[in-house]
Amino acid sequence: MAYFSDSISVAIQLILKFDPNVYEIVWTSLKISLIATTFSGLLGVLLGIWVGIKEFIGKSFIRHALNTLMAMPTVMIGLIFYGLLSRKGSLGEFGLLYTEDAVILGEACLILPIIMNMTLLAVDSADKRMLTTLKTLGAKTHQQIILALSELRYVISAGIITGFGRAIGEVGAAMMLGGNIQGTTRTMTTAIAMETGKGDFELGLALGILLLLIALTVNLLFHLLKNKPEY
Asked: Which residues in 197-213 are b (16+ Cβ under 10 Å) and which e?
């Protein structure tokens, strides 16, 4: 018990003293996750709204596929992109493996189905009269998307925040695609796994505390947006 309490004390000191090693890892995690969420957010929201307002063959299949992809293990994402980005892979010539770009790509693909599916569910739960009226008035697809985006902005934002929370807590794909290189691809989750294995429990605990604080902030934003009424 004394070991654990002493470790917590050291971890808190590392946080309060703004240990450069700790905050370099935190910044790397935030940067990678924010970039991945930005790309996935833009693409996922547009695709989610488009699928929601359109009727076409295969729409039901897309719904099932999104639900399946949301539950895909992160190591599968890492495995797929490792095969593509390795030297023998079809994208190996670009030299992306073990770079920030590779981790961003993996995290973006991981959270894209989450954002897209939550956007699609938001469109499905919207007032049916809105889309019916727009179609009756002859609104084009891009006009329907813009209005749906405006009407459902809080619900869609909650989906994006959820995606960010998944990205920053991801470890499997980040380890496989980034290689946990200090100052480049070492994220909080990969550092926690590595440093704890090396015996530096205090550093891992400090990063874990900061990760929990970030997760708490994300969860608070999610509930604020979730409970905000639509107008």
From this structure: eeeebbbbbbbbbbbee
Residue 99 near residue 176, CB atoms below 8 Å = no
The 10 Å Cβ neighbour count of residue 31 is 13
3-state class of 181 per DSSP? coil
By three-state DSSP, how is residue 114 classified?
helix
In whole angstroms, give the CA distance from residue 216 to residue 138: 44
pTM for the full predicted model: 0.89
**Closest listed residue to residue 73, CA positions, set 173, 163, 180:** 173
19/96 Cα distance (integer angstroms): 30
CB 50 within 8 A of CB 42: no
Of the candidates 159, 49, 41, the residue with the CA atom closest to the CA atom of residue 108: 41
Torsion sign (Cα): 218, 222, 64, 42: negative
The tokens describing 163, both together, are 């995606």
pLDDT tens profile 27-71 = 999 999 999 999 999 999 999 999 988 888 888 999 999 989 988
- Closest listed residue to residue 160, CA positions, set 74, 65, 38: 38
Cα separation, 59 vs 154, whole angstroms: 24
The reported pLDDT for the residue numbered 231 is 47
Which positions ≥6 away from 67 have C-beta within 8 Å? Answer: 117
Query: Which pLDDT does position 229 carry in this prediction?
Result: 56
